[in-house]
Fold this protein.
Amino acid sequence: MKKTTEKLYFTLGIETSCDETSAAVVVNGREVLSNIISSQIPLHQKFGGVVPEIASRKHIENVIPVVDEALRQANITLKEINAIGVTYGPGLVGALLVGVAAAKALAFAAELPLVGVNHLEGHIFANFLAHPELEPPFMALVVSGGHTSLVYVKNYNEFELVGQTRDDAAGEAFDKVARVMGLPYPGGPHIDRLAAAGNPEAISFPRALNDKNSFEFSFSGLKSAVLNYLNSAAQRGEVIRHEDVAASFQAAIVDVLVTKALQAVQQYGTNQLVLAGGVAANGMLKTKLASACMDMEVQLYYPSPVLCTDNAAMIACRTYYQYQGGKVADLYLNAVPSLKIGGNDKN
């Protein structure tokens, strides 16, 4: 740990919104002391996606051992923690309930403040861990398996939802197309690797809602177009070059994300763009965004790969800033699977 004369605030974060059981300890909202992640991907791969009941049962088995390991690696005891934060939405209700119950029990037993954290805000705040120099205000593009949103971060505790998907999230479209192409779950990384050997201009797939100054997204039509292309080609007996399909599909998603993100940056008059969520690890998205941001003299930030996926370090980071802002929950905190951005203002 760095030597410092400032008061140290230790936050424990717990994340169980989907299929990762994670716990982490962060100091002063910026320095990660531990970040333990127990992934369930091997369990769900044979089903081609997350099975909610299986995820919940595995969280029950893992949550306390993962918390214990996070405290051990951070070389800290629960008594030294200043606040406990937990994801309470959005996510799978059964999975969320496991984390919320564990956090409430720990907070009650140790007489510690409890903080309910919005999972999407946590993804955005992962960038504070990766980039200590980053400060609001900035525009955030949140792209994951369940969400695609543009969020204007005014300060550490005030957000404006600029736009979001009307149907499938970008990550969801990646997984569904990958499944049809016979690629393993999760599909995003496999599409990304396959696309690297393909021609992104080989197939013309649609870009929906591409009107200027429209910040809403839609990927269900694109997903259907890819499925129709594959089915039609198979029926005609044509040779399908999956590399070209992956590259053209990925290019259609990335084009929309980059265009809308930069338009939002311009409209809100900021010169900082933050990328967050699991799809933030996509190579083509980072490359295209970096090029567009350089042309517009916009500073681009994105987390390391481990902080792109679901993890508790981002939850512990968000906990610190909510705790500092007096946004503390009580023991009646409950899971809210459809929680919207900024939804924890009432805690």
